[in-house]
Amino acid sequence: MRKAAFKELLLIMNENSVLKASVLSGYSRSSFYYRSKPKQPVAIIISSRNRHRSTDSTALEAIEKVALEYPSHGVRRITAMLRRSGITVSRKKVYRIMKLANLVRKKSVRKHVIMKKRILTVPERPDQLWQQDITYIWCGHDGWCYLFSILDCYTREWLAYTFSTECSTDKAIRTLEMAVLERFPDGAISPNFDLTTRSDGGSQYTSDMFVSTLKVYGIRHEVTGKNRPDQNAYIEAFHKSIKEDCIWQHDLQTFQEADLVICKFFHDYNWNRPHSSLKYMTPKEFYAMINGGNN
Predict the structure, then answer these.
(1) pLDDT in tens for each of the 295 residues of the chain?
(2) pTM to 2 decimals?
(3) Spatial separation of the C-alpha atoms in residues 274 and 78, rounded to whole Å
(4) What is the residue-wise DSSP string for 162-226?
(5) How far apart are CA 89 and CA 66, in angstroms?
(6) CA distances (Å), origin 126, targets 67, 106, 154, 172, 245
(7) Domains of the chain: residue spans and CATH
(8) C-alpha torsion angle, residues 209, 187, 154, 70 (rounded to 10)
(9) Contact call for residues 76 and 67 (beta carbons, < 8 A)
(10) Which alpha helices (DSSP H) does the chain contain, by range?
(11) How far is the C-alpha of 148 from the C-alpha of 162, rounded, in Å?
(12) What are the φ and ψ backbone dihedral angles of 54, each rounded to 5 degrees?
């Protein structure tokens, strides 16, 4: 429409004022002066397009497979997983394809709240700080069930878990003992080892039985502040991931179904899932590297 108006104005003004015709019609002068470049041979264009379409199609299939299996993964982690599987692809290309396929996750906005600071342990080596927590899982006919987990904050390893229909202190103690045996097979922790475990103020973790068990093993206990899940951020983020990448991907109807799914994810998380904070190594690979190849 603007082009037609421009041409008509130009004819009226006898082609004496391109600028005025452009201003009046809204048609840009650059478009009027543009001369198309000579086209490449059709065969070259077609072969180039087919080559790009072929590589993009292969990458899209691989990206969709990873994104559907791990919905919480972003562009960087999916790129790392593709490279681990032997597909050479750049992060920009993964982002472009994911954006076209509407697979890019929106970045979560973190609210910064200024509160009184507490002196908490910052891990600088494996087995310096563990975090533990409980999350609820709906199991259909069996109702709500409970997953007790312990995470090594330095290596991101999921050390141990207990999945139960009961949310009791003995299950928290059992999970702790499993984690101790995972790291210290003889069940003895050196007094100089300085291991700390952090939890919220739930009754399971502040009970006399649980505190006594910590003292037996010589483990120091940190309790997060009231309404401060950010102080237990590693395990909180982990529980979010397990629900997005595992639990919510299945229509769980019984405790047994959920137990099998969680058992499979336990292995997958520790051995197959790369972490950006671990230079895109899996938790087991990272721990083996630090431990001199012994896992």
Answers:
(1) 667 766 655 665 555 667 766 766 677 877 777 665 555 554 444 445 455 555 666 777 788 777 777 777 778 888 887 887 888 888 888 887 777 667 776 666 555 444 455 678 889 999 999 999 999 999 999 999 999 999 999 999 999 999 999 999 999 999 999 999 999 998 888 878 889 999 999 999 999 999 999 999 999 999 988 878 788 899 999 999 999 888 988 999 999 999 999 999 999 999 999 988 898 899 999 999 998 766 6
(2) 0.65
(3) 9
(4) EEES---HHHHHHHHHHHHHHH-TTS---TTS--EEEE-S-HHHHSHHHHHHHHHHT-EEEEPPT
(5) 14
(6) 30, 32, 5, 21, 25
(7) 2-33 (no CATH), 42-100 (no CATH), 129-290 (3.30.420.10)
(8) -80
(9) no
(10) 2-12, 18-25, 29-33, 42-69, 75-84, 91-100, 169-183, 203-206, 208-217, 233-245, 255-272, 283-290
(11) 5
(12) -65, -50
Of the candidates 140, 138, 148, 182, which has an alpha carbon nearest to the alpha carbon of residue 168?
148
Helix (H) / strand (E) containing 152? strand 144-152
What the block records as the tokens of 16 is 């004496």
